[in-house]
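Thread: Alpha/beta fold hydrolase, structure

OP (GT): Posting the sequence first so everyone is looking at the same thing. Length is 313 residues per the record. Can we get the structure tokens written out before standup tomorrow? I want them in the notebook alongside the other entries.
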Amino acid sequence: MTNTARRTQRVVRLHRFLMMGALIGSATGCALSGNEDPPLAADLHETIVKVSVDEGGHKRDIVATTYVPDGPGPFPLIVLSHGSPPNPRDRPKVGRYRQLAQIRTFVQLGFAVIVPIRRGYGATGGTDEEDAGSCRHPDYLSAGQQAAQDVLATVRYAQTLPQVDRNHVVLVGQSAGGFASLAAASYAPKGLVAVVNFSGGRGGNPSTHPGMPCAPQQMADTIAHFAATTHVPVLWHYVQNDKYFAPEVVATWFAAFQAAGGQGQMIVEPPFGKNGHGMFAVKEAIPIWLPHFEQFLAPLVAMRQPDSVKSPT
């Protein structure tokens, strides 16, 4: 690419950022595996923004990344929430959670996507506000409520963007991000139509107690608390060989969810790889979960037919 072409590309990106009302640039404390951010995905109109979160009366910015289809929109919105690494020292490695294959699939379906990095992780950094405490007596409720504040702030921010259909919002999350999505849904944000929970939960102990998380009954009680004020359907998508949350444990959580008034369905896929907990992050697994995703959302959101997702060989 020539220098002139590079300058032109930068000008085009800057114009798009300003039109979206974005705050541009890498955030202070950005911690990726390399020394610089990777190139932005031009085909996804990738944009780095800042979202303001209210921390008990004072504002704190978190980093988020937006992706939109071609055209003016408005497009239904997916808020994609990341998980939490087993070792707290690895929280900076979350970076901006650029799951591009999965995000590209969502964009091909006609969604705008925004990926917030919650306080204490990756490009946002700072204190982990959603620490659940000890394994014996975890405070899942407080952890979920803290995570929900970042997700809800992201929804409100994204609904100000002209490309976004503010009346069709879907929360999608994996692991701790799935749990954060369940928590955020309990606040009944305007425009929310569904939640997709990929292997969601907290307190997994894969190295010491595979499949058996800390205080699973406490998690069931917390999920029931969230379900009582959740008014949209939830897809629970898990995998048989999840070493964080075994299916029999998740079944008790889903039962608590339903007993408290939650609506939705649970799918447990056959074993995938050595640990099915991370299925969502594997590109080759997209054709496995995508049909369930489309079928679940079809009555709620108008979607396109993706043209580049093929069945695994």
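GT: Both are above now. Quick notes for whoever picks this up: Strands lie at 47-55, 58-67, 75-81, 112-116, 164-174, 192-198, 234-239, 264-269. Residues 3-297 form a domain with the Rossmann fold fold (CATH 3.40.50.1820).
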